[in-house]
Design brief:
CATH architecture: Beta Barrel
Structural class: mainly beta
Strand order of the largest sheet: 1-2-4-5-6-9-10-11
Number of domains: 1
CATH class: Mainly Beta
Number of strands: 11
Radius of gyration: 16 Å
CATH topology: Porin
Largest sheet: 8 strands, antiparallel, barrel
Length: about 170
């Protein structure tokens, strides 16, 4: 089942873009389980908006990832378009940013501790903030919420907070 889902994820990733980064992440879920995530990022390849003075810039990337929900014995696969608002770099080359996105996820299990997701398909809502260094690497924090938006009942949903590191190529 996981192999089939991974194959579907790989086939739906944007093929026109080269791999731009790999993210490793550790987090904690609302069910008090440790989560581990690895993701691949594919930049949109263009600026979507820039302030007149150039101090703020909106761009984005596709993020495809696999999360292991350790003590819940579950894995999720996600594909999310992320929008990132960056603020001017400091003299040291550090650029702060905030990001947000809504994407799709597939869970291998629907009963996660006390939470019943109601189905394997879930929406992923994500917000985050971080710092991008002049090398292209990033560190940051993220908050995730997963639910099926009421498509199926029950719709308990599950949340996750995480720290991450991104290595850019």
């Amino acid at each position: 089942m996981i192999k089939r889902a991974a194959l579907i994820l790989c086939c739906t990733m944007p093929a026109a873009h080269a791999l731009d980064g790999i993210t490793v992440q550790i987090g904690e879920s609302s069910e008090n389980t440790t989560t581990y995530r690895i993701g691949a990022q594919f930049e949109f390849g263009r600026t979507l908006w820039q302030s007149d003075g150039g101090g703020a810039q909106l761009d984005g990337y596709w993020d495809a990832g696999v999360t292991r929900w350790s003590s819940l014995d579950a894995t999720s696969l996600t594909l999310t378009p992320m929008f990132r608002l960056s603020f001017g770099a400091s003299d040291g080359g550090v650029t702060p940013f905030v990001e947000a996105g809504i994407g799709a996820s597939y869970f291998t299990e629907t009963d996660l501790g006390d939470q019943d997701l109601g189905g394997k398909f879930q929406f992923e809502d994500r917000i985050g903030a971080g710092l991008r260094f002049n090398t292209g690497s990033e560190v940051g924090v993220r908050y995730y919420h997963y639910s099926n938006a009421g498509i199926k009942q029950p719709n308990d949903g599950i949340d996750m907070g995480a720290l991450y590191y991104r290595m850019s190529f």
